[in-house]
Design brief:
The protein is built from 15 helices and 11 strands. It is of the alpha+beta class. It has 3 domains: 7-99 and 318-351, Arc Repressor Mutant, subunit A, CATH 1.10.10; 120-218, no CATH class; 234-294, no CATH class. A 5-stranded mixed β-sheet has the order 4-7-8-9-10. A 4-stranded antiparallel β-sheet has the order 1-3-2-11.
């Protein structure tokens, strides 16, 4: 996104402080929703008057509305057309009301961005297209496209030694969304020599289904031997075989790690092919090296990484407040209000601001 002006002074022109304006811009760009604690973390201050002042101001201007989540907790939704337009995001869908799962995933995404403020993040479709076509030399024809738009999912891409794609699992019961994501990015993944997929959740849930699905098409670094049959890597399967051997022969006492691997393996290594390999291991007709070579695969060097966000999110079943909270100002929308001073934008345009 190439703005011909800096959106921060534009947001300041209606009374926001610089930090408030920057946070609003981040919320508008990445999520459309935010929590009080996210603003507090962004300004690196404890709970108190600064967060209250920010919320009062945003309510009074009609830029946000609150969504009651129970237990005296609220999600704040940035709804102002003017704020999005001032930030150069006039076509953003973030001001539209979303379902519970989508709201949670947006909050998770904002937390991820706040965790990586000093990192290089591709956060707009324009920046992603430019990176993959101009920097990496990929054809624009293979970029993920949905509803006629490249990178329509608006998921941030972290740039480290390799591109790190992100997928946010808000607690879905199926992997259908992840399957669609992997299919949508298939051509890009296949064209890269190396990449990483960050699978982001907020609880210590099982990643095995997603990892297995990913491994079926994009095995991790070859040395790890991650395949649909060995979703936790070939070394984990070898650990399982040795733990079974120890349990059966009593050559040495079982360790806590042995017990953990045995417990994990009971639900993973259940096919007839697994049983054949277990039998071959027990009879000495195969070895660790043979098994390792069996599961080493060629293909794009794709790494699947699980990330558990250390943050809590409001409960499901969000409900709009039936009445605005007097102490926080009105929760009415701002449609029809002329909020931003045109001369602020004009001054920057004439001054050559490049955003």
């Amino acid at each position: 996104m190439n703005l011909s002006y800096d959106p921060i002074p534009v947001l300041q022109s209606v009374g926001y402080t610089e930090r408030e304006a920057v946070f609003l811009y981040l919320a508008a760009l990445h999520s459309g929703y935010f929590l009080r604690r996210q603003y507090v973390r962004f300004i690196e201050r404890g709970r108190g008057a600064l967060a209250e002042q920010f919320l009062r101001r945003a309510f009074a201007l009609g830029h946000i509305q609150s969504i009651a989540c129970g237990q005296a907790r609220f999600v704040y939704h940035l709804i102002s057309v003017e704020v999005y337009a001032a930030a150069g995001l006039g076509a953003s869908h973030h001001r539209r009301l979303k379902g519970d799962a989508a709201i949670k995933s947006r909050l998770m995404l904002l937390d991820f961005v706040l965790d990586h403020l000093n990192a290089t993040i591709l956060d707009t479709a324009e920046s992603k297209i430019r990176y993959f076509t101009q920097v990496l030399g990929l054809s624009e024809a293979i970029l993920p496209r949905s509803r006629g738009v490249d990178f329509a999912d608006e998921l941030p891409i972290l740039i480290k030694d390799v591109p790190c794609f992100t997928f946010f699992d808000e607690g879905a019961l199926s992997t259908s969304s992840f399957e669609k994501f992997v299919s949508r990015y298939h051509a890009v993944f296949a064209a890269l020599a190396s990449f990483e997929l960050l699978y982001i959740v907020d609880s210590n849930q099982s990643f095995e289904r997603a990892r297995t699905l990913f491994a079926a098409r994009y095995p991790e670094a070859r040395a790890l031997g991650v395949t649909p049959m060995t979703p936790s890597g070939v070394d984990h399967f070898l650990e399982y075989l040795r733990a079974r051997e120890n349990a059966g022969t009593g050559k040495r006492p079982l360790t806590l790690r042995d017990l953990a691997v045995l417990h994990e393996g009971e639900s993973i290594y259940v096919t007839l092919e697994h049983e054949a390999l277990v039998s071959a291991w027990e009879t000495g007709t195969t070895s660790a090296e043979r098994i390792r070579q069996r599961f080493l695969q060629q293909g794009p060097n794709g790494k699947f990484t699980e990330i558990i966000l250390p943050y809590r999110y409001p409960l499901h079943h969000f409900k709009f407040e039936s009445q605005s909270k007097p102490e926080l100002g009105s929760s009415d929308g701002s449609s029809g209000r002329l909020l931003f001073k045109e001369e602020v934008i004009q001054k920057q345009l004439l001054g050559g601001g490049d955003g």
